[in-house]
Structure formats: structure tokens, C-alpha cells
Design a protein that fits this description.
17 strands; Dihydrodipicolinate Reductase, domain 2; globular; binds nicotinamide-adenine-dinucleotide; Rossmann fold; alpha/beta; 2 domains
């Protein structure tokens, strides 16, 4: 019988629900070395918290994250709060000797992300994780394996877009539109994911941001619960060009005002021997162009990455071939890999820790500086 892993969660809304489901499902679908116990949940809204805890199976709940972060019963603290509230709970949990899983971006600002990276380094007994969940869509994990096997050869281009359209003028002034709470807008929210994916898939690091442009299209939004407007001071869209140490050229595009797109998280890699493309809205599929087949038959193949017999990542833990997976499975796959990693076992594909997520944050910062100063920024300047 595996021993218990007591988990505490801070945040009860969007990610709170996604993570609760993942922790609750992990042992049902994976044979893991520990049994996850949903021990304690925390959120700001005391009226809703009891119902949330009961629905997802959390044993206890509190509105004070300080109590949860230091709760001696907990082995792991999961931080799923707005970006300004990653630093304090994650630091407190690390100081209390716990493992920490934190939502992305690691923090709203580079300085806070650096503090987290350094604290994680000091906390020798703790392991850290960042919820870059898209790594664990099986099609993305398969793409990484193919790149690592050399199926693309040297990568020439990375083309990444993360387009949404909910940032219309009537969207209220939530934390996501306030710099002091979010750090940045579409950039930190969406480019964080595709920069992580680009680094993860290529296994390479960005060396320079050549240029970036940011735009806030909607300057005022309604303050929730009032009829007053307030200032929206984050980017609604940010685009940038970059190059990798290995020579690949890359473009990144994040928007909350890309009319017609809902959650269009897509990345394409073009290499000397082939190309790969992933689009989250068809998340079970990986498009693969194998140039080595020659011009007669080379073309884009659509691989439905759900085959246990085909050795597709995570496939044997779920359903028969092409009985498709959804958004939540990426989180459950990650929860399972976190439990494995805590016990020193290998995750199916690499897990991002705070040091890894800090590297993504440096790229995000370089693009912010580039957009603000209208200059190229070498990553060596961003520490
Ligand atoms: N991995 C992903 O794909 C993904 C998707 C969405 C959001 N996120 C990230 O997850 C984090 C949370 O985003 P969300 O969409 O869940 O936000 P949300 O607004 O839906 O939920 C935020 C939660 O934080 C809680 N909270 C806020 N202040 C608190 C406090 N002082 N004490 C206790 N609880 C507090 C709120 O009660 C709420 O439950 C952000 O960092 C965001 O960038 C990641």
C-alpha cells in the first residue's frame, strides 16, 4: 500500500477546480508510489469554499493561506492564486519544508520569480513544480520525443501563437487586467505557455529577443460590482521575434483580442528533416511532415496521439485508441508525474521546476523590455 501524500491547495476557482480534479484522479488512472490525499483547500471566498471542498473531496478548508502553507500535516502545497500571490505562499511553504507546485507564470515579475528560484535552490528537501500543463498533452509529449530522437534534425523555425478573444471592452477589470496583480496581460498569461513549449520541445534556450511590440486596445474596464470604470494597464496583445542558441528563428504571438480565436494555442517547428505542428483545439493530434520520405509521399500526417500500442505518452493510462482526451487530462498527467518525481521516479517527460520556469520568465522579461525600449535584448542582459 503506497504511503499518503498530503496535498494542500490555495485557489478555488478556474485552476483550483482543474488542480482539484487532477489530484483526485491521479491514483485512479496511474499506479503511483504515493496515495494523494486532498487534505486542505484555501480560497478567499469563505461562502463558496465549503461547497467547493465538499464537491472535490478536500478534507478541511480555510480562508487563510498562511495557515495552509505552514500546516504540519501537508507534504505539498499547490499555489493556484493570481500571479501577485504566488511568491508569499510558495516561500512560506518552502520555508516549512514542503514541496511546492505553483501555477504559471512563476510570478508576475522577474524579481519575484528570481526570489522563488533562489528559495527553491536553498530548500534542499523540497521539490518544486510549475503547472505548464500543455507539456503533458500526449501529442506535445510525443513531439518532444520525436525532436529528441532527431526526426526534425536542426530546427530552423519555431512559430508559436496563443490567441484568445475574450478581452472585449465589456470584460470586467479582474486581476488579469491589472499590472500590480498580474504583472503583464496576454504576454505573461499566454506567451508564458508557448515560450515554455518552445523551450521544452526544442530542448534549446532563447538567446536574444530581436524586437517586440505590445498593445493595450481597451484602456478602461468596468470594476466588478460597481458601475465605475478602472484603468486596464496590461497588454492585450504582445508579439515578439527571437532566436535560439542553436540558431532557430522564432516568433511568438499572444492576444486576448484575436477575434475568431478562443483558445488557439499552437506551435510549429520546422527542421532540416521534417516539421511538427500542434494545435490545442485539436489536442489529441500531432501533425508531422517527414521530409525524409521524399517529395513523392512526404506530406503532413495527422497522428492521433492516443495509442498505447504506439507507445504514445500517457496513452496506456487512459482509454482505447482515439477515445479522446481533454483539457483536464494534461493536469492529471502532470499530477501523476509530480507524485512520481517526489519519490525520485522519472516523469514521462521532463517537469518544469522553479529554476526552469525562471528561464521562461527571463524570456518574457526580455520581450517586455524590448517592447518598452524598442530595442533588441540579449538574454545575457536579463538575470
Ligand atoms: N496552467 C494554465 O493553463 C492556467 C490557466 C488559467 C490560469 N492559470 C494561472 O493560475 C493562477 C490562477 O488563475 P485562475 O484563472 O485560477 O484565477 P481565478 O481568478 O479563477 O482564481 C483565483 C483564486 O485565488 C483565490 N485567492 C485570491 N486571493 C486570495 C487570497 N488572498 N487568499 C486565498 N485565496 C485567494 C481566489 O479565491 C480564487 O479562488 C494564475 O497564476 C494564472 O496565471 C494557469
Amino acid at each position: 500500500m503506497p504511503s499518503d501524500l498530503f496535498v494542500g491547495l490555495i485557489g478555488q476557482k478556474f485552476m483550483g477546480r482543474a488542480h482539484s480534479n487532477a489530484w483526485g484522479q491521479a491514483n485512479r488512472f496511474f499506479d503511483l508510489p504515493r496515495r494523494v490525499v486532498l487534505q486542505a483547500a484555501c480560497g478567499r471566498d469563505g461562502d463558496e469554499l465549503g461547497g467547493f471542498a465538499a464537491r472535490f473531496g478536500w478534507k478541511t478548508w480555510t480562508t487563510r493561506w498562511e495557515d495552509l502553507a505552514s500546516d504540519p500535516k501537508l507534504d505539498l502545497v499547490d499555489v493556484a492564486t493570481p500571479n501577485h500571490l504566488h511568491l508569499a505562499p510558495a516561500l512560506a511553504a518552502l520555508e516549512a519544508g514542503k514541496h511546492v507546485a505553483c501555477e504559471k507564470p512563476l510570478a508576475g515579475t522577474l524579481s519575484e520569480a528570481r526570489q522563488l528560484r533562489d528559495a527553491a535552490k536553498r530548500a534542499k528537501r523540497s521539490k518544486t513544480f510549475v503547472w505548464f500543463n500543455y507539456r503533458r498533452c500526449p501529442a506535445v509529449a510525443l513531439a518532444r520525443q520525436l525532436v529528441a530522437e532527431g526526426r526534425l534534425g536542426a530546427i530552423r523555425h519555431v512559430r508559436a501563437t496563443y490567441l484568445q478573444s475574450w478581452g472585449t471592452p465589456d470584460a470586467p477589470l479582474t486581476w488579469r487586467f491589472q499590472k500590480k496583480l498580474a504583472g503583464s496581460g496576454a504576454h505573461g498569461d499566454l506567451n508564458a505557455h508557448v515560450v515554455d513549449l518552445a523551450r521544452f520541445l526544442t530542448g534549446d534556450e532563447i538567446h536574444e529577443v530581436h524586437g517586440a511590440v505590445a498593445r493595450t486596445f481597451v484602456m478602461e474596464r468596468g470594476i466588478p460590482g460597481t458601475d465605475k470604470p478602472g484603468k486596464s494597464d496590461v497588454d492585450d496583445a504582445l508579439l515578439f521575434l527571437a532566436s535560439f542558441k542553436g540558431g532557430a528563428l522564432a516568433s511568438f504571438e499572444a492576444s486576448r483580442v484575436a477575434t475568431g480565436h478562443l483558445n488557439a494555442n499552437a506551435i510549429e517547428l520546422n527542421g532540416e528533416h521534417g516539421a511538427l505542428r500542434f494545435e490545442f483545439e485539436s489536442m489529441n493530434e500531432l501533425l508531422f511532415h517527414d521530409q525524409t520520405l521524399g517529395p513523392r509521399t512526404a506530406g503532413w500526417r495527422r497522428i492521433v496521439a492516443t495509442s498505447a500500442a504506439g507507445g504514445h505518452p500517457y496513452a496506456r493510462n487512459w482509454w482505447p485508441d482515439a477515445h479522446l482526451l481533454g483539457y483536464e487530462h494534461g493536469f492529471t498527467n502532470m499530477a501523476a508525474d509530480v507524485v512520481r518525481a517526489i519519490e525520485g521516479q522519472e516523469p514521462v517527460v521532463p517537469l518544469p521546476d522553479f529554476a526552469d520556469a525562471f528561464e521562461t520568465q527571463r524570456v518574457l522579461e526580455a520581450a517586455l523590455v524590448s517592447a518598452k525600449e524598442r530595442i533588441a535584448v540579449r538574454l545575457s542582459e536579463i538575470r
